[in-house]
Design goal:
Blueprint (H helix, E strand, L loop, with lengths): L7 E8 L7 E8 L8 E5 L2 H14 L31 H17 L3 H15 L4 E7 L27 E6 L15 E7 L7 H17 L17 E7 L3 H11 L3 E5 L2 E2 L6 E5 L2 E4 H10 L4 E5 L8 E2 L2 E2 L5 H7 L4 E5 L5 H16 L4 H16 L9 E5 L13 H4 L8 E8 L6 E3 L4 E5 L6 E2 L10 E6 L8 E6 L5 E5 L2 E5 L3 E3 L5 E4 L7 E9 L3
Parallel strand pairs: 1-4, 4-5, 6-7, 6-8, 8-12, 12-15, 19-20
Antiparallel strand pairs: 1-2, 2-3, 9-10, 10-11, 13-14, 15-16, 17-18, 17-27, 19-21, 21-22, 22-25, 23-24, 23-26, 26-27
Helix pairs in contact: 1-2, 6-7, 8-9
Length: about 525
């Protein structure tokens, strides 16, 4: 089982086609046990509309009270918790908590609540978090902040709970294509927008600032808890690119993360991203390019990426940028539900990328980043509620391949990992960097260094960085797992090691599997320090 393969409970929510327009069906799409596939029909709760309108009036940048009655039931209030039942606190905190509580009571009712409780118990028994995904099929409910769902006062909201990895999803998707086994983060950062006089310089500065934040995996006091060395992070920047430049760069770059900051316009096909004056790209076309190039995660720092397109004051199904990308097979999309301030977005993206660099899954990283945002801007402010994560139902959230269990047990020195590589002695330009203190060598395609020679095993060896013991200095080691062994050049000639571990020294030459194999030289460069 993958370290990112958690027990999963997926729920679908859809309006019933009946004489009563406010009837809804809630059912389980995926459960971690056979009896969990239950169904529950319910009426829309008037308390939800009242709480939602009050919440919007306080927090939303685009509040329109005229739209609220569209969701109202014909009856009066239903029973249950009211705003007055909450303990005294400031008004914004009570509004935030009240809406989360009412939404939870409505969604997790009847058999759904039982399925959720059993699923939580199964996940707890496996000492893993429960992956909770919500497929919202009524476009009028997309704008609701489902991320603030809260089971009861004093309990964390669903998207802040490390034992509940919450995301939105959709069953109306293409199959998830095969995914690369990436060892490092490779980001294409695109800053777009209409060209204005003097604006290019400020965009260049903004791009440089964001790129520095993304590369700096240990900024702002953020530190890992599991002693895993961070993966390297490469950031390539495009400022106001042309349409063809964007596509050519994606086609050539092998990126696993696409980041867009700028402006756009909603539309039925996912809307438009403005690249530069006279140049844009729509959601459907962008989706095709991202899927073709196996981009695993798309991040949008724009105010409308998670909002559906409105036509005649009606939300168009599957029209937001996030939903369109998911529909075409992009594994994960992070977009904003409403306008977010630049400083809030940067704080969130920084913590999110730091967690990804520590090889957490996308939804695990989402929890960590949202908690960071909450700490900075407080529970009663909307900042932590604005990022929305969509994940493909077949995607396990893995952006980077986790370090093997054997490696993570070793005490890494995080602040000074020397940059090392294997260099071909046949082709001088071929250098193979060892990313994040780990390189897997072998013939199969999921290795970091693929050697397609017949005497090389599918999973031949690993080069790892660790402490050997408390009495030895840290260093790189070769661990052989192969059928025919690994040859090492010594003063006595080529010596074979087989199912053994060997400390590596700069200048040491290696051959994998046979003395007929190509020669590779181990090299260490200057230390790569992380602040």
């Amino acid at each position: 089982m993958s370290s990112h393969d958690h027990p999963s409970l997926s729920l679908a929510l859809e309006k019933l086609v009946s004489s009563e327009p406010q009837n809804y069906a809630i059912w389980v799409l995926k459960a971690p046990y056979p009896g969990g596939y239950v169904h529950h029909d319910c009426n829309w709760d008037a308390r939800l509309t009242e709480a939602w309108c009050s919440w919007q009036e306080m927090f939303s940048s685009s509040f329109d009270r005229n739209l609220c009655p569209q969701l109202m039931t014909s009856g009066g209030k239903s029973g249950g918790l009211s705003l007055e039942d909450l303990p005294p606190s400031n008004h914004t905190t009570r509004l935030m908590q009240h809406l989360g509580l009412v939404m939870w009571q409505w969604l997790f009712s009847g058999a759904i609540d039982t399925a959720f409780a059993h699923s939580q118990g199964i996940a707890g028994g496996k000492t893993r978090p429960l992956r909770l995904r919500l497929d919202i099929r009524d476009p009028n409910l997309i704008a609701f902040p489902w991320e603030i769902l809260q089971p009861q006062p004093g309990k964390p909201a669903v998207s802040l709970n490390q034992q509940l990895l919450f995301s939105r999803t959709s069953s109306d998707v293409d199959r998830l294509p095969p995914q690369r086994n990436d060892r490092s983060i490779k980001i294409l950062l695109v800053l777009g927008g209409e060209a204005l006089e003097g604006h290019n310089l400020s965009l260049d500065r903004e791009a440089a600032a964001i790129a520095e934040v993304l590369r700096n995996t240990y900024a702002s006091g953020f530190a890992p808890t599991d002693r895993v060395p961070p993966a390297s992070c490469q950031v390539d920047v495009l400022t106001q690119p042309s349409h063809s430049k964007l596509i050519d760069t994606l086609d050539a770059g092998s990126y696993n993360l696409f980041f867009y900051a700028g402006h756009g316009m909603p539309g039925a096909d996912g809307g438009l991203l403005f690249l530069r004056s006279g140049a844009s790209i729509n959601g459907t076309e962008l989706a095709q390019v991202l899927v073709r190039n196996q981009v695993k995660l798309a991040v949008f720092n724009s105010c409308w990426g998670a909002q559906p397109y409105q036509e005649n004051q009606q939300s168009v199904p599957r029209s937001s940028m996030a939903e369109v990308l998911l529909h075409h097979g992009v594994p994960a999309i992070l977009a904003m539900r409403d306008t977010i301030a630049d400083h809030e977005a940067i704080s969130f993206i920084q913590a999110f990328t730091q967690s990804l660099a520590l090889r957490l899954s996308v939804d695990e990283s989402m929890v960590a980043a949202r908690q960071h945002l909450l700490t900075l801007y407080k529970f009663n402010q909307p900042a932590w509620t604005l990022p929305v994560l969509y994940m493909h139902p077949e995607y396990d959230g893995e952006l980077l391949k986790p370090v093997t269990e054997a490696v993570t047990e070793m005490p890494y020195l995080l602040n000074s990992i020397p940059t090392a590589c294997l260099r071909s002695l046949v082709t001088a330009t071929q250098n193979f960097p060892i990313q994040g203190g780990l390189m897997r060598v072998g013939r199969s395609g999921d290795n970091d260094l693929i050697i397609s020679e017949p005497w090389v095993s599918q999973k031949h060896a690993e080069v790892i960085y660790r402490n050997s013991s408390a009495d030895e200095s840290p260093g790189y080691f070769l661990r052989d797992f192969s059928r025919y062994g690994t040859l090492v050049q010594t003063n006595q000639g080529w010596q074979k090691i087989h199912h053994q571990e060997l400390p590596l020294k700069p200048g040491m030459q290696l051959k994998f599997g046979s003395d007929q194999g190509q020669s590779l030289e181990f090299s260490i460069d200057l230390p790569n320090t992380f602040p």
